[in-house]
Amino acid sequence: MSNRWTGLEPAISAFLDDFDARAGDPDGRPGELFAPTFLALDPRYAVAITAEQFAASLPARRTMFADAGVRDVRRRDARQLRLDDQHVLVAGEWAAERDSGTVELSSTLLVRSGPDGYRVLLYLNHHDISALLATPRAEGV
């Protein structure tokens, strides 16, 4: 396999498009894109979590984003590193837009191809999202 990052293969691009669409939709059932148990990491924590637990945490996450004045989150860039026939590292950058400016978010996913398509095995947020969103909002917002 290649040992360098490349642009997204069509199947990985479609997976990320689905990932982004489901993340923004309260009824999108994003947990279906994750392995039954996966590893979730950020600068403070590393936790094994079930897809059901993850899905149950999403309403609070959406509220946190809304309370921080985030109107929209859009992927700006993504690339992949194919590890073998089944596993791909996918790194991406997202922009969370709010009145006080843009909050830059970056994540890396380890995904595995299976009979039902790709599933996330590892979800690494490179930032403490709570701390990023706690930065002051524009006055009057």
Total domains? 1
β-sheet strand percentage: 35-45%
* Low-confidence runs: 137-141
Q: Strands of the largest sheet, in order across it?
A: 2-1-6-5-4-3
CATH class call: Alpha Beta
Helices and strands: which structural class?
Answer: alpha+beta
Largest sheet: 6 strands, mixed
How is this structure best described in words?
With 141 residues, the chain is α+β, with helices and mostly antiparallel strands. It has a single domain (10-133), classed as Roll (Nuclear Transport Factor 2, Chain: A). Helices cover 26% and strands 42% of the residues. It has helices at residues 10-23, 51-67, 129-133, and strands at 34-41, 46-50, 72-82, 87-98, 101-114, 117-125. It has a six-stranded mixed sheet. The model is unreliable at 137-141 (pLDDT under 50).
